[in-house]
Design brief:
This is Lipoprotein. By secondary structure, this protein is an alpha+beta fold. The protein contains six helices and eleven strands.
């Protein structure tokens, strides 16, 4: 059977953590107007992670289970500098589930970002894990996480779309349970089921977590069989690395 081109790997970021920047059109400040006024903090606001710190927070080959290797070609696509589109939906309200725009006019632009992609084996149907780290201020990251990617728009749990490599597809979106990590985490599963009988279905499992001002996402793309154990290990390890980098950055900032 034919499979989707490997180029679809970075597109998973469009539906995962980086989709938050496309989905949350407004500021969360309005949510606070009915509540009690917060006491202003005298502590200086933490700066977003630098590019070097973002890169240090990324998963490396040694962080992955045996059998997984770094995909250098796909990882060279910087998730923070462009737009990835998984497919074109037949319903306008469903398109954000398939789009990802980092630094759009409606949302904060990340200070820095990077992505690492890993594959299990060399077959075209081998699963891939895509990991992205995006640096914001802590307030920006907290506001972005107020948009729950598991809250699917009406009529969008199932809809039709088209993709240049998959053709016409049926898209099914469902909530995905992920570990409770850091300053908040959430998950979603998106299944693209092609109309053509000789094209494999593509399953995207996405986990998003906030670590201070960093948005961390891990996504697994699978065709014939997923690897949930590797996916969950990657989530936990990615968040732990981001926490370590963020704490070191905060310590260095307070000492400066």
């Amino acid at each position: 059977m034919r499979t989707a081109l490997r180029r679809t790997a970075p597109a998973v970021l469009a539906i995962g953590a980086l989709a938050l920047t496309a989905a949350c059109g407004g500021s969360a400040d309005a949510d606070d107007k009915d509540g009690a006024k917060a006491t202003p903090s005298t502590a200086p606001a933490a700066k977003p992670l630098t590019q070097a710190q973002v890169e240090k927070a990324l998963l490396a080959t040694q962080d992955m289970p045996a059998g997984w290797s770094f995909d250098e070609e796909t990882s060279s696509d910087n998730a923070g500098t462009g737009e990835f589109q998984a497919a074109v939906a037949d319903k306008k309200q469903c398109q954000p589930l398939l789009d990802g725009i980092v630094g759009s006019d409606e949302t904060p632009k990340p200070a820095e970002s990077d992505v690492a992609v890993f594959v299990k084996g060399g077959a075209d149907t081998a699963p891939a894990i895509v990991h992205g780290v995006t640096a914001f201020t802590e307030k920006q990251a907290a506001d972005l996480m107020k948009t729950d990617i598991s809250e699917v728009p009406a009529g969008c749990h199932t809809f039709n779309a088209s993709d240049e490599s998959l053709g016409d597809v049926k898209v099914t979106v469902s909530e995905l349970a992920v570990p409770e990590l850091a300053d908040g985490s959430m998950g979603v599963r998106v299944l693209l089921d092609p109309a053509e009988a000789d094209v494999y279905s593509v399953q995207y499992d996405m986990a998003v977590a906030r670590v201070g001002g960093a948005i961390v996402n891990v996504a697994e793309i699978s065709y014939t069989k997923d690897d949930q154990a590797a996916f969950e290990q990657a989530i936990k390890t990615a968040v732990a690395k981001a926490e370590k980098v963020t704490k070191a950055a905060a310590k260095a900032g307070s000492a400066a």
